[in-house]
From TrEMBL:
Molecular-function GO terms, alphabetical: ATP binding; kinase activity
Protein name in the entry: UPF0613 protein PB24D3.06c
Domain Phosphoribulokinase/uridine kinase: 395-582
InterPro entries xrefs: AB_hydrolase_fold (IPR029058), P-loop_NTPase (IPR027417), PRK/URK (IPR006083), SidJ (IPR013744)
Pfam family name, one: DUF1749
Species of the source: Cladocopium goreaui
Source species taxonomy: Eukaryota, Sar, Alveolata, Dinophyceae, Suessiales
SUPFAM superfamilies tied to this protein: alpha/beta-Hydrolases, P-loop containing nucleoside triphosphate hydrolases
Amino acid sequence: MQIAPSATWKLPHLVHIASPSTQRLGISCALQPVLGATSIAVVGRFNRKFKVAGARQSHPVQMSSTCETSSAGELFLYDQNLGYAAFEAGDPGDRLGSKALVCVGGLTDGLLSLRYLPNLAKALKTLGWRTFQPVLQSSYRGWGFGSLQDDAEGLDKLLSFLETNRGISKVVVLGSSTGCQDAVHFLKVGMKKSLVHGIVLQAPVSDREALLAEQRSEDELTQLERFKQVASQMISEGKGSEVLPRSACQLFGPPDVITAYRFDSLTRRMANDDMFSSDLTESELREKLGHVNVPCLLAISADDEYVPPFVDSTALCHRMANAMAAFPANLTRSVILPNGGHGVRSPEGQAQFINAVTDFVSDLDQKLLRRLDWETALAADLQDRAAACGRPLLVALAGMPGAGKSTTSGVLRRLLHPKCFVVPLDGFHVPLQSLRSRPDADDAVYRRGAADTFDPEGLCEKLRQVVEGQEPKVWFPDFDHAVGDPVDDTLCFERSLHRIVLVEGLYLLRQQDGWGSLADFFDYKIYLEADLEECIARVKERNKAIPGYTPEEIDRRCDEVDRANAKVVQESVNQADLIVQTDLDKASR
């Protein structure tokens, strides 16, 4: 949430017409926002005016809230019909390449209102990235009339223009403040979302909670509740696009105007704009953020003035990341900026933020971070299969130890939230007490994880209750690593909610040793193919966290037990309906 009541423009005296053969009209200029004085201590109130200087020159950037911010670059129209413009930072020689950072500001933001943009553009230029900032329908004083959908349509037009007219093929969307909602929403509905390879969320704070960041009078709180009711009533009457009294908008700060829809979206719990509130449950956060299937960098300011004292920003940042599909695949990053506030105005905060962004895009370039393309396609396919199934769709996800079953199931659970219920096969380990009662007790315990140390019949019975039973809930066990054993009745299948049951484990496709009847339960069988040696190396690294064993003992057990188990799992690959080659990120049927 970032509010400025006024924004005025002066046209440049010098207009440069570039490349008339391609009908490309641009204004080469330097943009300079000039700060006005803050006079009213209300949340989000400050004045900002802008001017466009005609001279094409770059000014030294001094990162201070009282100093000028400027950038050389090109101002161009990306929407010829409506006249919406965008700005590309940098001199002509800098404006080359096919990779772009697209910056989307928050409420009332406009060109260069993100004070770090000039320095960020310079840093990204060294990596071959270009930097753009569009004017959207909700920019400046249009925020009260705008919506996330309007901004998504504007971003679609911008990305289409950049792809066709600027040769851009790879995009990272940087959202600032309420622009974070735009970035997240675009990944769900954008027609050009396939161009987006990552997002940066700078100051992803709750607009609803930001209204409480400073102490409110009883009268203001009463007005807030009253206008929430008025807005809801207007929306129910089909008047969501009509404006509320100006006093409703003044609760946000500037004396602009706001529609009933936008007021409701910014103030109601779980409304369209409510993505980052601290009181959202884990399930609600997944509903809002679970579809984020690209690498994500979250940047939080420890001294953000729009975050109320009762919000633990660091904990909330982790919860937001955890809700994303990118999280299980280790594709989320976070940085806590010690100072700089909501807009990252301090030199130290800007330097740390810029370093985090450049590291993020560098990892994208080096393919250390990737989009979840095949996982997203698989999720869409499972959703279609579930829609055509008259009962819950049962899906097996099998693979060797270390092939990525838990990671993939975590991604799919978020992408398919709330309809997907995940069952780990580990919950059906034979308890240690039972293994110790066997004649070969020592060997059975040492080999735990082999096919004969699981309970496939117990899993069959639970799946039979899902398929044939009428109970509203079916409880499944889960494995508790703290005690080293399964714990009954831990995971709950809800018949009214879950349409997909995804079981992940080693031997789900096996036909021998009592596993064949289990394999017959599944409607769709997926096998994750991976390199055996890479899998064993991952298991060795993962098992180092197990207490009570030396690294040598862990390595020896992995080579003796996990390698043997992996070879057993490989024998069932031909039973799969879909084989996903995870090391190559491609699938074969």
